[in-house]
Amino acid sequence: MKKIITIVAAILVVAACSKTNLKIEGVIADNRLDSKTVYLTNIDMTHLDSTEIKKGKFSFKCRVDTPKIVTLQIDMGQDEPIERQIVLESGQINIKIGADNEIDVSGTNLNDIYSDFWRQNKLLDKKYENALNISEKAAAEVDKEYVELGYNFARNNPKNIVGKIAFLSAYWGMSIAQREEIISLLDDNFKTDKKIAKIISNIEQEKKASVGQPFIDFSANDINGNEVKLSSLVGQTDYLLIDFWASWCGPCRKALPSLKALYDKYKGKKFDIIGVSLDSKKEDWAGAIERFQLKWTNISDLKHWDSYPARLYAISFIPNTILLDKEGKIVGRNLHINEIEDILNQK
Questions:
Q1: What is the mean pLDDT of residues 17-24?
Q2: What angle separates helix 136-156 from helix 337-344, to the nearest 10 degrees?
Q3: Which residues in 210-266 belong to E strands, given as ranges?
Q4: Residue ending a domain, choose from 83, 107, 131
Q5: Residue 340: which CATH number?
Q6: 0.85 cut: is pTM over it?
Q7: 57-62 and 47-52 as β-strands: parallel, antiparallel, unpaired?
Q8: Which is more confident, 45 or 150?
Q9: Exposed (0-12), middle (13-18) or buried (19+): which is 328, by Cβ within 10 Å?
Q10: What total of structural domains would you count in the chain?
């Protein structure tokens, strides 16, 4: 599953144009963009500032006291905007937008580092798209490259915002040891970020639900209101997969056909699935079960991210999986379909 680089950062830019320490100079190759509006926007898409493109150029001047991530965006009307994330920091930031609308950012230290990270991720995006046309296994290998890239950038930049961004983009695939290493290196100010604070708090719980540990029991109601305990299914088959998902989760829906094919191939004494939905509305959950014709047991406490089973297993993103063996021991976490099948074929 492609993990898109979504930067979760609170953006509060202190503007004081009488004492500017930041200048953005933009040059655009396509003269058809003249008179278009360029925005600097927060993560919530609220506008910080805007300017007009004139004769293939635009500029901003303001003040920032702490480096921040924002999106530079050109409004294209009915079409998709031309956009890229940049680091607002003191100095002159140079923006070049080519005829193909690719945006090059340079001029300050953090933007040079971030541009390198961005460029390498874009190369992996193309590689991932090609891998999807080959096999799940090929895509899974590219996923590992995303994680390695994020880990290395975070490890090399723990005190600046690029390191924070890199960590948030790849923590999902890092081992507990790797996450603990990066967290120990991060600037203390970054550790108060809500997402990072949650990652930190999840680590201790995840250790209790890590590979090699016994399963942790839970219960929730199925779609008909009947209580189902995890322990009632453990040991009934060689392997039991706990699939954490939700109807509102696009990657979850995309993964369901492959999961259904795996279930149809191995169901019986060898394999079973229990789905744990992080939905909050029963009608959405029920609709997805019917639409995708999910035949395995599905339960939910309809508490969204406050789902008790998800908290027990330190689930911080979905889709996510926990694989149990016949004795109830955890033998895998966050497995791709091909990895699950490899384990099933060991017996």
A1: 76
A2: 120
A3: 219-222, 227-229, 239-245
A4: 107
A5: 3.40.30.10
A6: no
A7: unpaired
A8: 150
A9: middle
A10: 3
